[in-house]
Amino acid sequence: MSNKALIVVDMLNDFIDKKGALYCGETARKIIPFIQERLQDFRKRGDVVIYLQDSHDENDKEFEKFPKHCIAGTWGGKIIDELTPGPNEKVVPKKRYSGFYGTDLEKIIADAGVESIEVVGVCTSICVMDTVGGLANRDYKISVPVKGVADFDPGFHEFALKRMKQLYGAEVS
């Protein structure tokens, strides 16, 4: 049993593909090779890999704040082809920013005996930061590699990195 996990947050067509409903821009595309490397490393060691997948209902209240995106079962809500999950890797659909809200993420991590978690994906200031906050509230050792996260807004990205380091105690490198 591994005590390390990689959480890949919302690397979905609607955020990462130019045709996506909420395309995060080239900065999001640039993190793909880094995440591929991290996946390879974690898989080689037999560590836990978990994907978080924004997965909304057609009339989700979130669409009052953002355009419709990542509707469950649609192309936009699918994990990008470059980061296809492996056979024993968990995909956790979520309806809100934090990977913990209304999901079984906490149980998956606990059952796997995980102590240390690396978080990569999009958006730094939204789903990444809220999930990292949930991990911090559960006293996990957290790392967030700067090369592995991206955001729509460069200012929010920088703020989120600083907040995750200073408030949540994440190792941001």
Describe the structure.
By secondary structure, this protein is an alpha/beta fold. Helices cover 33% and strands 19% of the residues. Helix 5 packs parallel to helix 6. The model has no long low-confidence stretch (mean pLDDT 97).
Strand runs, count: 7
Determine the strand fraction and express it as a percent band: 15-25%
Radius of gyration: 15 Å
CATH architecture: 3-Layer(aba) Sandwich
Helical segment tally?
Answer: 6
Arithmetic mean pLDDT: 97
What structural category characterises the helix and strand content?
Answer: alpha/beta
Helix percentage range: 25-40%
Please name the fourth-level CATH homologous superfamily. Isochorismatase-like
The largest sheet is: 7 strands, parallel
In whole angstroms, how far apart are the ends? Answer: 26 Å
Write the layout of secondary structure elements.
Elements: E1 4-9, H1 13-16, H2 26-30, H3 32-45, E2 48-54, E3 90-94, H4 105-111, E4 116-122, H5 124-137, E5 141-144, E6 149-150, H6 154-166, E7 171-172
Parallel strand pairs: 1-2, 1-4, 2-3, 4-5, 4-6, 5-7
Helix pairs in contact: 5-6
Structure described in brief:
Helices cover 33% and strands 19% of the residues. By secondary structure, the protein is α/β, with parallel strands linked by helices.
Q: What characteristics describe this protein?
A:
173 residues, alpha/beta, seven-stranded parallel sheet, 6 helices, 19% strand, globular
